Amino acid sequence: MTENRPLLRPSRPFFSSGPCAKRPGWAPDGLGGALLGRSHRSPPGRAKIREALGRTRTLLGIPPDYRILLVPASDTGAIELAMWSLLGPRPVDVFVWESFGAEWMTDAIDQLKLKDTRVFSARYGALPDLNAAEPGHDIVFVWNGTTSGVRVPHGDWIASDRQGLTICDATSAAFAMELPWEKLDATTFSWQKSLGGEAAHGMLVLSPRAMARLDSHAPGWPLPKIFRLKKDGKLIDGLFEDETINTPSMLAVEDYLDALGWAESIGGLKTLFARTDANFACLSQWVQKSGWTKFMAAEERFRSNTSVCLTIVDSRFAAMERSAQASTVANLMRLLEQEQIAFDIGAHRTAPPGLRIWCGPTVDAKDIASLTAWLDWAWERIRPQ
After folding, report:
1. Can you give the pLDDT at residue 59?
2. C-beta neighbour count of 147 within 10 angstroms
3. What is the gyration radius of the CA atoms in the chain, in angstroms?
4. pLDDT band at 345 (very low <50, low <70, confident <90, very high)
5. Rounded CA gap, 274 and 52, in Å?
6. How far is CA 222 from CA 32, 112, 234, 383, in A?
7. Partners of 235 in the beta sheet?
């Protein structure tokens, strides 16, 4: 199996959609300043958390009157905290086009049991009718469909004079796509996506409107401790400054600070966008000529430039049962992993069998270019006969 091997290999074969590749040049030595063996409530611990929140605000251009807090349980914890704390006073519109949006729909209907909930859904690769959103309703949606490769193209569909709140899961969009903060009231993301930080912690960004709802609204259901932002009916102001709901990993905090430092050193948000776009452009050029793959997102303007999802269009593959298709993709992945060319690029388990290749800013375009040649090489060896 050595014949016709491509000459160039990815220097970093990490294309997983989460946890994502560490920043270029990352090494454990960069975490030497971590506050280990100390309390996160100590003055140095609080300073680290304050620094993480402040530099996040600056890098993302979050408005000064928006509040930011660090929460447990990654993006999942952040989006569920937002939903469980903010929903209830108004009807809810949930937009679903991939697996994570479906999870938030489940929260709204089956867990919170919100009776006035409308669901707008679309198959993998498409978007529902976003213009169906009612300005008087709260809205729950993902900005970028991590498991479908379909993203919201802009925020124009969100009413500027809305009465409801928008709750946006932006974990595979933050730091890689433009986010219109004026249209977003509760926005969530995690450290292990676009900046390649360590997992387990999430971020929640709240607009003044969301803060007003949080202050005035008392949910009609019990809130677990890790969701509580109020005590004795009053907001815990320290959570938006230098405190946390529970104990964070100060090693993970240091790693996030390291990732922020890298992003700042290369030119900030515009450079992060440019790196992502360059990676996506490189992969797109290959898809257009590969002959055996295509984008899951049919419409170009809806295509994610981070979690790029591809389907396999080989006629013999298409004629197979889904289980056989999944087995074929597993064989492709196994071959690439054995060669140490690419790790973890299979489609999400809920999506149609295919490929999912992360093109976020911590990936290098030259590695995407090397990967594509190896994808063709591997496919020739495992494709159905």
Report:
1. 98
2. 24
3. 21
4. very high
5. 23
6. 41, 10, 16, 52
7. 230
Instruction: Tell me which residue has tokens 């971020």.
Output: 203
Could you read off the pLDDT of 151-196 as tens digits, one per residue?
999 999 999 999 999 999 999 999 999 999 999 999 999 999 999 9
Helices (H), 61-98: 74-86
Instruction: Check if the beta carbon of residue 221 is closer than 8 Å to that of residue 112.
Output: yes
Determine the topology of domain 28-265 in CATH. Aspartate Aminotransferase; domain 2 (3.40.640)
**b/e per residue, 242-280, with b = 16+ CB within 10 A?**
bbbbeebbbebbbbbbbbbebbeeeeebeebbebbbbbb
**Strand ranges for 1-101 from DSSP E:** 67-72, 92-96
Beta bridge mates, 187:
168, 205
Q: Under CATH, what is the fold of the domain 269-382?
A: Aspartate Aminotransferase, domain 1 (3.90.1150)
Helices 43-60 + 250-265 axis angle, to 10: 40
**Cβ 296 vs Cβ 363: under 8 Å:** no
Quick one: the chain helix, strand, coil %, rounded to 5?
40, 15, 45
Q: Are 353 and 267 in contact (CB under 8 A)?
A: no
Q: What tens digit of pLDDT does each residue of 263-306 get?
A: 999 999 999 999 999 999 999 999 999 999 999 999 999 999 99
Residue 286: phi and psi, rounded to 5, are -70, -45
Query: Whose structure tokens read 């990732």?
Result: 259
Domain spans of the chain, in order of start: 28-265, 269-382
Rounded Cα distance between 184 and 205, Å, is 9
Strands of the sheet with 201-206, listed across from one edge:
67-72, 201-206, 186-190, 166-169, 138-142, 92-96, 117-121
Cis omega (within 30 of 0) on the bond before 19? Answer: yes
Contact 199, 190 (CB under 8 A): yes
